[in-house]
Amino acid sequence: MDAIKDKYFMQRAYQQAVEALEDGEIPVGAVVVCNDKIIAKAHNLTERLNDVTAHAEMQAITAAAEYLGGKYLKDCTLYVTLEPCLMCAGALAWSQISRIVYGASDDHRGYTRVKENILHPKTIVENGIMEEECSKIVKDFFKKKR
User: Positive or negative, the Cα torsion across 127, 131, 137, 143?
Assistant: First the structure.
């Protein structure tokens, strides 16, 4: 995929992060794209649903699978503003998603802290798209919480 499309879809994920922020959630947003079309969009809902598993990625996986009528996301790309955690990376592995693009790294809870690759072996991962904006929204959120 080219850089222009990646930035466009990451901007859509970032819009979801802004919605999460407005709802009092940790500002992480995600979209799933298939054939250059957004088939799912989501943001964190852990506070609203009182559910620790209601991360943006989990919500997006569920919505995309429902849209496609199957559990595998083999021809899809997930754009997410923050590096997935271990839980989300595990779910993404099971979904067999083709590609993951994330904005900011998560040095505290990101899946890359684990030495072994837990994603599906065919999943392509790219990062750093809109990294500054994606990092800033999360950092600012936590500064206000403290």
Answer: positive
